[in-house]
Write a structure and sequence with these properties.
The complex is a heterodimer of chains A (about 850) and B (about 260). Chain A has about 850 residues and is an alpha+beta fold. Chain A has 31 helices and 30 strands. The chains are: A alpha+beta (about 850), B mainly alpha (about 260).
Amino acid sequence: MSALSPAATSPPSASVAPASHISPAQTSTQVECTHCRLPMSIVAGNSGPHFCCNGCETAHAVITSCGLDGYYALRDRLEASAASADHAPRRYSEFDDPTFRKLYCREAPDGLVQTELLLEGVHCVACVWLVERLPRVNSAVLESTLDLRRCSVRLTFDPRVGPLSRIAADLDALGYPPHPARRAAQRDARRAEDRQMLVKLAVAGACAGNIMLLFFALYAGMFEGIEGGFQQLFRWAAMILNTICLAWPGLVFARSALGALRARTINLDVPIAMGLYLGGAWGIWKTITGEGDLYFDSISALIFFLLIGRYVQQRQQRFASDALELLFNLAGSTAHRVGADGACVDVPTESLHVGETVEVRAGETIPADGVVLLGNSKVDCSILTGESRPLTVNIGDSVAAGSVNLQSVLRVTVVATGESTRIGKLLRMVEDAQARRAPIVRLADRWGAWLLYGLLLLAAATLIFWWPISPTLAFDRAAALLIATCPCGLGLATPLAMTVAVGLAARCGILIKGGEILELLARPGERGTIVLDKTGTMTEGVLSVARWTGPASVLELAGALCRTSSHPVSKAVVRHLNVAPRMKVAHSHEHRGMGLEGTVIEETSPHEWRVLLGHAEFLGTQNVAIPPDLAFEADRCAANGLSPLFVAVDGVCAGLAEMGDRIRPDTAAAVRRFRAFGWSVRVLSGDREEVVRHVASEAGISPQDALGGICPEAKLNIVRELTSKGRTVMIGDGVNDAAALAAASVGVAVRGGAEASLAAADVSLTSDGLLPVVELLEGARRLMWTIYLTITTSLLYNLVAASLALLGYISPLLAAIIMPASSLTAVAICMKSRPFRPSPRAMRGQTSPGRPNTRGALV
Amino acid sequence: MIFVLFSAVLTASLLGSAHCAGMCGAFAAFAVTPKPGPNIASKAALNVAYNGGRLITYSALGLAAGSFGALFDFGGAILGIQRAAVLGAAVFMIGFALLAILRQFGFATKHLPIPSALTSFVRAAHARAFDLSPIRRALAVGMLTTLLPCGWLYAFVITSAGTANPFLGAATMAVFWLGTLPVMAAIGFGVQFLTGRLRRHLPLATNLLIIGVGMWMLAGRIVAPAQQARLIPTSMQQAVDSLPGKPADTPCPLCEGHTP
């Protein structure tokens, strides 16, 4: 263990002051006051704590002499969690780096440069107003446009007037710390596509609205009488508008239908397009001949509403693919490159090269794979390995990109960057796994295909049957059949029911990326398997005291001593104690890697105790014998994969804390429910074999189904194998699970998971534990019932409508009027169904303080 | 005019109280954290005790500084320097703030050494204060705050000396205390480190404020009523001129024919 208070061990963050600020005689650097954290200047090279004034120096001395230096650790933690971006002033010098320019900026012919930056802290239209006034703040900016939904700003600036770093600093000063936006070109293309769709939607809406107005007059004329000239004028005007609607916005369906026919298949757009264009052509013919009823209003309204559905669907797909971008932000966008003179320069991660040295400060993410050149610290590798305990790294040890440096400053020599890093390769696997995923067959398509073929055949038969009698009658009845039985209800049922379910699930804290996921979760099918990750999924994911053996007073003494240390084991003991300190520590000393020693004094009495805390070997070196009963407990604890921690008071070993990652209370109950739904349950974890088996047995899973020491690559292979045999649901929380989450039939990321796992997963939970997964499975089953009901109703409607149309009881006009009945029925059933019901537990889960996400997400 | 002085002090202390949060935040947090037990003191009571302690010693210091200023003013008047306390305070404040700004802009200068006796005393006093019962501890820690050699605090002590009046000096420090109260009370109630991104600009802003107050005092805009009421004549001619009912152009019978 190492006793660390940031003030004592980590040097204040320093950066070289601009040349204009340096006195001729001395080189100064900007640092923060060790005590009050206000910025100050010191002579370069001065080490140790720095104080802005004598008051701070005295205050620091008083605090440390009174044994209260834990205050600094507390302060740093609070500040770090309050806002990762609420940092010491950032200069954004990496934004001027040529690599950054190449990656994120586009040169315009007139010397101007365009770029897109993601902004933190964007909330409302007031932010739009403020950000778009950036040209008034910085003269180099010519245009600034904020996309409120994506929290990104598009900038056009003149680099000859001012650098991008200055613009970024100005945005930061306005309260919107910027970050580079990756894949900007791809988003530009998407934006153009969205814009096109919106224009089509607007045209369809305008046409439908105007045709509706014309038809009000025509319908009124049917009852009240209308002059022939006006009637002809309105019919022709409606025909022109309808032709525009069919020729431009309606082309979406025609193209889709033609594409399906070219591929020798059939989709919902085929009868839609046939109905629309056949009806349109027949309407034109009747307008020209001047006789018969028209139904341009139905056709144009149909195009408009179908386009709305298409647009919403497109947006949902965008959301899913946007989430993938998060994967690439794991290693951070900025690194502190150490120059030849030892000074640090902030550069984009992409500009790092093998052999360079980077500085990684406490709390920062390691930007590249490397070897520690200078310093020692503890590193949280759980994102890669799933190992819950931080690893100690010293000079010469390897560190991986994406890991988090927990304690003190490290200097690391880069050995691999970008996609060559282990995390880069892992993320590539996630992409590959997502790309290789088998396309999900939509329920409605399966049922609808038969209906479509049947309807087309029926329409053709109707046309052929009635043609010899009267071509007009033949067209009327065929058109009536196609319009009345238009499979809108059927097409609407599945997506609508799923959209409603997804919305309700979100209110329950279950975020589902696509409704079709629910179809897969409704039934396990043959060999359906739920694969659980251990750390953070079955367990709480943090080191804790799993069991305490010994008097409570001894634990209190241990807790008092542990308050002086920032070691994860000490923190776990303090958390377990969970009461305000009643004792003071007169002296404490950490024996690195062994244990903690100190003198604890009771506040209300002069009595003092010498307390030792550590492994058996440490107590042995202090001549403290382990009593047989505690030794037996320690052996049992080790067999269960837990770490024994002994506590000795005044030379007598009096307590044993079993350290480990505690299983969540709802895990066993959830596993029982999974089995009741027909799923088999397995555990795959990167943690040690014995730990995994112990946790599995506590959850009621046989040790044969629990595998430990599994690296992410092996986890991916096992999940792939399981998926090839049957339906697989992978439930995990870390980057080490991300590839497996993507490869499984359905990936479920539990609360507090890494962004990579959230991006790769199909479902993200905002509540702790596995019970939300049980709710998810139950909700999916209920949803399937709703969909079956809707489809059955639609099929019945179509059957009746087709029969009536065939027999000539329904004219095309009446067909167009009753056509929405099918859709309305589907909508009513879907809206009434409540597959997910926000339960008190779910509501509690949403508001309870769970394990915080350790990384600041930009979304 | 005293209203202007108080307004300036209040504004400066309000804006600069982030420094107090950084420097005394730890003490405030320790002082107002209730100890578990049967007679648990409420956080509000501890806050009142802590900030009340600060008010007592701040006002006492202001009283002393005002008295010193009055003496200084009197001495200056005898030497023929009008409003010596104001001038001295203003010059000192401007010098203090300029030095701080220079430091901030990269001119590394050494701080004056802290008397080791003071440091030892402050440490021992705090150590003893932490052993007291919660309310007493909060009061004692609040009172001891004044003993921390804080440049920001002492800039205002000098301002209160500039009033050259013990009561106005105490009132000036009470106003200073009032300005720091929101931030210090917020710390006590758990709102920690609320200064955020503003923090980086605070040293410059607060030092500029101190310069502003100093310049104002130099320019004679801030003159305490006490000084206005009892400006000590620096010459016999001035004394005669100040007599009621004396025509302005009447020469002094003693000075007539002599060059002052």
